[in-house]
Amino acid sequence: MADTSPLDVLEKRITDLESLVFGNADKDALYPKGKPPKVQCIESMLVLQNKIMAAVAGKKKLTSVYQNLPALRRYMDPAYTDEMGLSEEAKAEVIFAEEDYLRRVASQLQTVKEHDESLSSEHVKSVPTLSGKLQELSQIHIQQQRLSNPAKGRVICYMSAIAQMNTHTAAPVFGVRVVLPSAALRQIGAAKG
Hints:
By secondary structure, the protein is mainly alpha-helical. It has helices spanning 6-22, 27-30, 41-56, 60-67, 69-76, 78-84, 88-97, 99-114, 116-119, 122-125, 131-166, 182-192; strands at 171-173, 176-178. It has two domains: 1-81, no CATH class; 133-192, no CATH class. The termini are far apart.
């Protein structure tokens, strides 16, 4: 190791870097040794910069955005948002203030973990497949409710009629005491006679 010079180490690192960048491609085809490159990198970047500046020229909003780029980069930095946030003491105070809530959530989570076997059983796993059948049953239930509403109204009407008759006669009707007014009794008697 002592025989290798720093230049050899640097050359090895450059070779490794080139193999990572170019992979299996032939880098000498794109960048042949001994020949100057056709377009210098700095020149191409300068051309691009000039094109961008020409496109932006006269547009005040874009120039203000370019002027604010360093501030935008700073605001987008996660370290800056950490600095802007609460201090450690404030974070601790928030956690202590929510201690009861956190304990409740932790106990609920523990309960869910205890019932994990029940929740992961085949019966629970098959619930999505039964949703179609549940939909059909709910439709049948709604139809039956619609059909029973008129009958329910009739039963209520019948019961109120029986209750009214009970207030006017002492004789039970169908096991229910019905009281008829005296005029109604006279009409019934006249109809029989």
